[in-house]
Design brief:
The complex is a heterodimer of chains A (about 100) and B (about 900). Chain A contains four helices and three strands; from the N terminus they run H-E-H-H-E-E-H. Chain A has about 100 residues and is α+β, with helices and mostly antiparallel strands. Chain A has a three-stranded antiparallel β-sheet with strand order 1-3-2. In chain A, helix 1 crosses helix 2. The longest helix of chain A has 27 residues. Chain A starts with a helix and ends with a helix. In chain B, the strands form three sheets. In chain B, strands 1, 2, 3, 4, 5, 6, 7, 8, 9, 10 and 11 form an eleven-stranded mixed β-sheet that branches. The two termini of chain B are about 65 Å apart. The longest helix of chain B has about 35 residues. The radius of gyration of chain B is 38 Å and the shape is globular. Chain B is of the alpha+beta class and about 900 residues long. In chain B, strand 7 and strand 8 form a beta hairpin. The chains are: A alpha+beta (about 100), B alpha+beta (about 900).
Chain lengths: ~100, ~900
């Protein structure tokens, strides 16, 4: 979900995605960066993102990921589900 | 839509595995180097930064694996591993693999060939609009005899259409004739069709068009539609044929259309297929066909009818009964007692009894395939119990039951696929054989090809076979492996009783199937034998037969034709090597026979048979009473000769000689067609089956050929060395009149086995072949099982020997299982055969379904096979050294 959202901003390569999530979450979400790539592979397999090799600003070759329309739809669904879960959890905790 | 992008990606990963792996690698290196740079910019020194990056990233090798798994590679790896393992283990047992593949290939090959046959005929469907509602219609007499309606009757039906308006949508009358196209030597069939025929059939032409309304009116220009076969054979498939002119019996006609290959209306043949090559409108030429106006003309035509939706033959028959009664009252001579109709759906016309025979072959093929699968399944079972130790080790090393089962299943999958591929090739070969030999049996036989549908069928069958052969052994083996883990030592003896029982049950199944096939084959063989021994009533062996047509117009007058026939006979008789020659018969049409003096309720019909004086002697037919035609009779006819059948009908229990009978002239080409001739019966001759051993005896009335000079004539010649005489015969006929046209080619007739019809021969051979294959498979299967069983029970048998068992007792112990399997299988098989053999009831000749001779023979054969197959290994068991057996592990 986080990867997909990050990609709605602009196409990025893997490192940039990892950096973005780390910065935005203020280092709270510090997942092993390597686990990014299997996740990206699964997204590719489901057609939610596409990948293309391009030149990075530093002139080196990097693989850039772009979100697809299907990806946006999936993101929307996931965020709604997340929100609903959040509300449910909050209710339970308040009741508790 | 984007799901496809995902699938495309997966495929790319699948097929470009290595390239993709290096891409992922490069991507991760990029990531690491960026991260290192980032840290260096933050002040960390280079080496330290690299280490931190790596630690922060995680283990790249592990991550690469994870990426691979995320891409779905896990399943691929496992499958590849299974297949490699299967290939290795099969390579270690080449005999087993070869046998299994060969068996399966045979089974799949024959199924595929049969599928192609069925496909060519049935699945392709009939090309007519709503083919189920198209039927041929016949008149039926009160005793159930059948004939095609004459043209005047058809015309009456059409004008009185209001009577059956709701049941019938339309009708067509088609008259057939033999014609010559351009200067071609061979004759072809033309169909003159009444108005609206092609609309009735509802088939679109493959090329061009069908008749327009003005072309079907009187006085129209001469047009023709041709068949696909003619299109290919005569015009080589040249599409420019539309608009070309060809001469039909000398008259130019413009070709306006070509019908598709499957269009075969009407079928002028009876049990065979006689299809038209050319269709022309009937209406414009009705004036030049005076015979059509005759109510008594019931041959060379077909009448088709299309039923309205919702109507069935019963409602049509009911609707037409009133019309038929009316006609019977108006035209008592021709229509009396013909008061109902019967319909024959066009599909049955095309397939007819052949469908039954084809079903039978298909069933036999399926059974043999099942047999092959069961055999292979048994082989697999045996193999897996041999490998039980290896499997136990695998299980101990952590393989799950599912994994082991999957590995074993891959073996059967490989074998099935190999068998499938080989089977497709074999199927193509079998289809080719069928195309050449089964021309009488299968309609559209030239269409029988192994196409993409057949290949898909073959592979599907292979997969099913894989499941059947592999599932049971795989499951049992995986169970066995697990159990062995719990046992120590034990080796091959564990869990065996149940295994053995299963194997013998499979053998029983094989026997049951074999028994069914053997009984079917046995019944057909009996029928074949009985057909071959039917007496034809005349000396058929070595008789040369041919038919000729004298050229028009020189021999149109009957006297000219008669004298030509006489000169030909004289020429034949003076040819060296010829011992006798005769002229015998035109078209052998059934005609009504009446007795002018008796009040005739008898309604007899007989075949109208003009013959020459040499007929009796040449054919070798006995004279039973009275006298035969002499030379005087050839000049002036003084009487008829009838055969025994007609004699008994004319005078049951009494003497037919001297009885006066009337027949009507039956040659349509003669002006005096239909005129009655009344003469006394002067002789009675023996019955003959002129149409082969399976035809019925028909009543015959013989008359001098000079009395009714047929426009074409059959001849029969008896000569010493018939095959070598054929040329000489042709030459001597041509010497008399070079312009004579031979109808068909002269042939030598045979009696006995050679006289049996080609279709029956083919069917019998095929089923016998299958039964033999089944027997061999069952034999091999049984042999294998018994031999293996002996191996397995070595220790037990060793103990028995040590305890003093005699060889006889040992053999008995080993064979008892086989015999029980035989008994069980045979019992089930006989019951099964009783039901399934009904399919071939129509093909049996003077043989009942429960023919005792066949049953006994089959059981004897099977018992012999069982004893043979099990005795050898049983004997070997008795020679086992008891000490070795006990000590063996």
């Amino acid at each position: 979900m986080l990867i997909l959202h990050t990609l709605t901003l602009q196409p990025m390569h893997g490192y940039a995605i990892a950096k973005h999530i780390a910065e935005r979450s203020q280092d709270v979400l510090r997942v092993e960066q390597g686990s990014l790539y299997p996740a990206l592979e699964r997204l590719l397999g489901k057609g939610l993102v596409t990948a293309k090799w391009a030149e990075s600003p530093t002139g080196r070759r990097a693989r850039y990921y772009t979100i697809t329309a299907a990806g946006r739809k999936a993101l929307g669904r996931e965020i709604s589900a997340y929100d609903a879960a959040l509300v449910a959890i909050a209710r339970v905790l308040e009741r508790a | 839509m984007e799901i496809f992008r995902g699938i495309l990606h997966r495929l790319r990963v699948l097929f470009r595995g290595e390239q993709y792996a290096s891409e992922v690698d490069e991507e991760m290196r990029f990531h690491l180097s960026l991260d290192t740079e980032h840290r260096m910019r933050a002040g960390v020194e280079a080496g330290q930064a690299a280490v931190e990056s790596r630690r922060h990233f995680g283990n790249p090798t592990y991550i690469k694996e994870e990426v691979r798994y995320a891409a779905g590679a896990r399943w691929l790896d496992a499958a590849a591993q299974d297949l490699r393992y299967a290939l290795r283990s099969l390579r270690r047992a080449p005999a087993f693999a070869a046998l299994a593949v060969a068996t399966l290939a045979l089974g799949i090959g024959s199924s595929t060939a049969m599928f192609s046959v069925v496909d060519a005929i049935v699945l392709r469907g009939l090309p007519y609009r709503d083919a189920g509602r198209l039927a041929a219609i016949y008149e039926v007499s009160d005793e159930g005899r059948i004939r095609t309606p004459s043209y005047p009757t058809f015309a009456d039906w059409q004008t009185q259409a209001a009577s059956f308006g709701t049941a019938v949508e339309g009708m067509a009358y088609i008259r057939g004739d033999g014609i010559k196209l351009d200067d071609d030597a061979e004759r072809r069939i033309v169909a003159y069709v009444s108005t609206g025929f092609f609309q009735l059939a509802g088939t679109r032409p493959a090329l061009g068009r069908t008749f327009a309304a003005e072309e079907e009116a009187a006085g129209a220009a001469n047009v023709a539609v041709i068949s696909w076969t003619l299109f290919m054979e005569k015009f080589g498939g040249d599409r420019g044929v539309i608009g070309r002119t060809m001469r039909v019996n000398g008259e130019p006609a413009t070709i306006i259309g070509v019908m598709p290959h499957a269009f075969a209306l009407p079928n002028f043949g009876g049990s065979g297929w006689i299809m038209p090559s050319v269709w022309q409108p009937l209406e414009p030429r009705r004036a030049s066909m005076p015979q059509l106006a005759l109510r008594g003309l019931h041959v060379d035509s077909r009448t088709l009818v299309r039923l309205r939706p919702g109507a069935d033959s019963a409602s049509v028959a009911a609707a037409m009964r009133t019309v038929q009664h009316r006609l019977a009252a108006e035209y008592p001579l021709d229509q009396a007692h013909w008061t109902s109709v019967s319909l024959e759906p066009v599909s049955r016309q095309v397939y007819g009894t052949r469908r039954q025979q084809l079903t039978m072959i298909f069933g036999a093929v399926a059974l043999v395939l099942l047999l092959a699968c069961v055999n292979i399944s048994n082989l697999f079972l045996v193999r897996s119990s041999v490998r039980s130790r290896e499997l136990a080790v695998r299980a101990a090393l952590g393989a799950s039951r599912l994994r082991i089962a999957r590995q074993l299943f891959s073996e059967s999958l490989l074998i099935a696929l190999a068998g499938g591929v080989l089977g497709v090739l074999l199927g193509a070969v079998f289809a080719g054989i069928a195309r050449h030999t089964a021309t009488q049996l299968i309609p559209f036989v030239s269409e029988v090809r192994v196409g993409s549908r057949a290949i898909a069928f073959a592979l599907g069958t292979a997969l099913v076979a894989a499941v059947i052969t592999g599932a049971l052994p795989a499951i049992r083996a995986s169970v066995g492996a697990l159990m062995l883990r719990l046992k120590s030592g034990g080796g091959t003896a564990g869990g065996d009783r149940q295994d053995r029982r299963i194997r013998y049950v499979l053998v029983s199944v094989q026997f049951a199937v074999t028994v069914t096939l053997l009984i079917g084959a046995g019944l057909l063989l009996q029928s074949f034998r009985r057909v071959a021994s039917v007496s034809l009533g005349y000396e058929a062996e070595g008789l040369i037969e041919f038919a000729i047509r004298p050229p028009s117009p020189a021999y149109d007058p009957p006297d000219a034709a008669a004298s030509l026939y006489r000169r030909i006979l004289d020429g034949l008789q003076s040819t060296p090597g010829v011992s006798a020659a005769t002229a015998g018969g035109g078209a052998l049409i059934p005609v009504p026979v009446t007795r002018p003096e008796a009040s005739d309720d008898a309604r007899l019909t007989a075949l109208y048979h003009p013959v020459s004086g040499e007929y009796l002697r040449t054919m070798g037919i006995p004279l039973l009473a009275g006298r035969w035609f002499g030379d005087d009779d050839m000049r002036v006819a003084s009487g008829f000769v009838v055969n025994d059948r007609l004699a008994r009908q004319l005078a049951p229990g009494g003497n037919a000689i001297g009885m006066r009978i009337t027949v009507r002239r039956a040659s349509q080409a003669r002006a005096d067609f239909g005129q009655p001739i009344t003469l006394p019966v002067i002789g009675v001759v023996g019955d003959t089956r002129l149409n082969g051993p399976e035809s019925n005896v028909e009543a015959e009335v013989l008359l001098p050929y000079t009395l009714e000079v047929w426009p074409w004539m059959r001849f029969a010649v008896r000569a010493a060395a018939p095959e070598r005489m054929l040329r000489g015969i042709e030459k001597s006929v041509k010497d008399v009149e070079p312009a004579v046209e031979f109808l068909g080619t002269p042939s030598v007739s045979r009696s006995g086995i050679a006289a049996v019809d080609q279709g029956r021969r083919f069917i019998t051979m095929v089923l016998a072949g299958f039964a033999l294959a089944a027997l061999m498979l069952a034999c091999v299967g049984l042999f294998g099982i018994v031999a293996y069983g002996v191996e397995q029970r070595r220790r037990e048998l060793g103990v028995r020997i040590a305890l003093g068992a005699s060889s006889g007792q040992l053999v008995g112990v080993v064979m008892s299982d086989a015999i029980v399997a035989l008994a069980g299988g045979a019992a089930v098989g006989v019951l099964g055969a009783y039901y399934s053999v009904r399919v071939i009831r129509g093909m049996l000749f003077q043989t009942s379904l429960a023919d005792p001779g066949t049953l006994v023979a089959v059981l004897l054969v099977l018992s012999a096979v069982t004893v043979l197959a099990s005795y050898a290994p049983a004997r070997r068991a008795t020679r086992a050294d008891p000490m070795l057996a006990i000590r063996s592990d």
